[in-house]
Amino acid sequence: MTKPAEVNTAAAGRVSSEAHSMTELLEIQRAAFLRDGIPDAKTRIDRITRLSSLLLDNSEEIAAALEADFGSRPRELSMATDIVGCMIDLTHQRRHAEKWMKEVNVAKGQGLAGFKQRLRHDPLGVVGIMGPWNFPLNLTFVPAGSAFAAGNRVLMRPSSVTARTTDVIAKHAPDYFSIEELAVITSKHGSGSDFAKLKVDHMFFTGSPEVGSSVAQEAAKNLVPVTLELGGKNPAVVDPDADIDKAAKFLADARMVNGGQVCLCPDYVFVPEAKLGEFTDKVIARWKEKFPTIRSNSEYTSTINEKNFTRIVGLIEDAEQLGATKHQVIPAGESLPDAEARKIPPTLLTGVKAGMKIEEDEVFGPVLTVYPYRELSEAISHISSHPHPLTMYWSGDDNANYKKLIDGTRSGSVNANDFATHLFSLELPFGGVGKSGMGAYHGRTGFETFSHARAVTVSTLPVSIAEMMSPPFTNRDKKMTNGQLKMWARFNRKAIKKNKKR
Question: What range(s) does the Aldehyde dehydrogenase domain occupy (predicted)?
Answer without folding.
Answer: 40-456
